[in-house]
Each structure stands twice: as C-alpha cells, then as structure tokens.
Amino acid sequence: MSTSQLAAQWVSAVGSAGSLLGFAAYVWIMLLNRRDQVEVRQEQQAQGVTAWLDEGRRHDRDEDYVLCVHNGGDSPVFQVRCLFSLPSSEEQHSISMALLPPSSDEIRSLPFGSEGVSREELYSAPAVPEMRFTDSHGTHWGRDSNGQLHRLDRRGVRRRPHADGGEDGARDDSEWEQAHRERADAPREGASQGDSPQDDERAASQS
After folding, report:
1. pTM of this prediction?
2. All residues at 6 or more sequence positions from 47 whose CB lies less than 8 Å from its CB, including other chains
3. What average pLDDT does the structure give for the chain?
4. How far does Cα 202 stand from its chain's mean position?
5. Which residue in 1, 46, 164, 202 could disulfide with 141, CB within 3.0 to 4.6 Å?
6. Are 114 and 75 in contact (CB under 8 A)?
7. pLDDT score, position 1
8. For 87-122, what is each residue's pLDDT tens digit?
9. Chain centroid, CA 21 distance in Å
10. How far apart, in whole angstroms, are the C-alpha atoms of residue 106 and residue 95?
C-alpha cells in the first residue's frame, strides 16, 4: 500500500470519528434542551397555583371570610397544603386538599369571621397563605408569604404522584410547618425586616 493510500485511510478514519463526536454532541445538546423545556413547562404550570384569603361575598358564599385556592394550569396538582396565621393571633391555620383540578378554584370556609378579624387584618401581609403542592410530574413546589414560587427539590422529572399520598408522592412538610409556627409565634415586627421562608430555609441549610 502506497503512502498516499495510507494517508487517505487515516484522513477518512479521522473524519468518521469527528462526525461521530459531532453527532454525539448534537444529541446531548438536544437532550439538555428537552429537559429545559420540560422544566419550563412545569414552572409555568406551578406559577398558576395560588392561594389567598378573601371575603366570602366576592365568591357567592355566606361566610364572612374564605380561603381561595386557584389552579390556572391545564394539569391537576396534588397534596395541596396552605398554612397561614393572623397578626392578632399566634394560632396556625392549616387547610389541605388531596387534589385540585386544572383550571379550577377551591373555596374553603375559615374558622373566624368579621366579628373577630377586621378586613384590614384579612388582607395584611402576615395573613398571606404559604403553600406546598405537588404537580402532575411529581415535582414538589412551595410558595412563600411573599408570593415567591420555588422548587422544593432539584431532581429530574419523576413518576406521577399517587393521590392517596403513596410513596411516589411522598412529601415531608414537617420542617416547613415548624418554621411557620415559629414565625407565627415571633414578634410581628420581624416581618417588616424582609424575613421570608426562603431566608429561613437558607439559614437552616448553612447551620
């Protein structure tokens, strides 16, 4: 075999290897983009899940005050949990629901009315509910009392959670409940310093 033929074979081999590496890089980039798109769609879904306290008459209810939970997405969310307290009380209120259908509102009664709680207190910052819920992909989300949404885990897309709270949909809210209770028990002036549940979580992770 002549030198020129040997050189041609080497060039062909290098070119084939380069093509394979280029194709592998292309596939890897496409997979990363697909994962990013899935996460963006998940966050868009989660952004549509909110909760707030409101006057019952605004929702055709006889009660003075109600809790409103809204899912503006096109998929259901599971294991919805809302915690809130009032400036005039250290009591922690908790309302849960196993399933919130897509494009729906859930209205729940509250254990207090206008005789004990003023309209100004109902719409005050401490009364804004904190939330935890799980989306249809099994990803856990939280929304703090400032309305900020955050993902509770950074793992990849998982299997759909069981509505009965089985292993696939397990979510531990105990530390969150304890932190919320401590904030409710703390002096109210702390809320004016910009404290938030995410600040507490960051401080706990650093300790």
Report:
1. 0.67
2. 149
3. 78
4. 16
5. 46
6. no
7. 62
8. 888 788 999 999 999 999 999 999 999 888 999 999
9. 38
10. 11
pLDDT at 159: 46
Can you tell me the distance from the alpha carbon of 101 to that of 84, in angstroms, rounded to the nearest whole number? 22
Rg (C-alpha) for the chain, rounded Å, is 25
Tokens of 115: 């005789």
User: What angle, rounded to 10 degrees, do the helices at 197-206 and 174-185 form?
Assistant: 110
State the greatest distance between any 2 C-alpha atoms of the chain, in Å, as a whole number: 101
Q: Name the nearest CA neighbour of 93 among 106, 115, 69, 109.
A: 109
Contact between 114 and 65 under an 8 Å Cβ cutoff? The reply is: yes
Give ∠ CA 116-120-124 in degrees, rounded to 5: 105
Report the C-alpha gap between 33 and 46 in whole angstroms.
Answer: 20
Amino acid residing at 169: G
d(CA 55, CA 96): 20
Summarize pLDDT for 164-206 with one digit per residue, the tens: 444 445 789 989 988 888 877 775 544 434 444 444 554 444 4
Apex 184 CA angle, 179 and 189, nearest 5: 115
Structure-block tokens of residue 192: 């004016």
